[in-house]
Amino acid sequence: MNTIIKILLTAVAVVVLSKFLPGVAVDGFVTAIIVAVVLALLKFIVRPILVILTLPVTIVTFGLFLFIINAIIILIADYFVGGFSVSGVWIALLFSILLSIFQSILFSLLKDDK
């Protein structure tokens, strides 16, 4: 249940960011949900592979290269999801940073008291 809520909150963040960022477009909320699912899958499958392959560059840049990896994941999602478009690498970088900020704020509302 918590995963579904996180995907819906990510979809809301994608829609909100597409309204404010000029290079990001989403056709509708259903497309945003698909984008959220694809991003979750890419972060689960592709991101660890990219982190391992680029570990020397990540160490040299003190972890800043992870922002580029997140932008690459956004661009891969742009490729796979019709109705979602990102105009370039810099917009994808800004979108990924802002999406991470929105997700951390929204997910902090879901904290479980264990």
TrEMBL record:
Native source species = Dokdonia donghaensis DSW-1
Q: Which residues cross the membrane?
A: 28-46, 53-77, 89-110
Q: Which PANTHER family would you find in this protein's record? A: SLR0284 PROTEIN
Q: Which InterPro entries match?
A: Phage_holin_4_2 (IPR007165)
Per its record, how is this protein called by name?
Membrane protein
Coiled-coil positions: none
Q: Which UniProt keywords apply?
A: Membrane, Transmembrane, Transmembrane helix
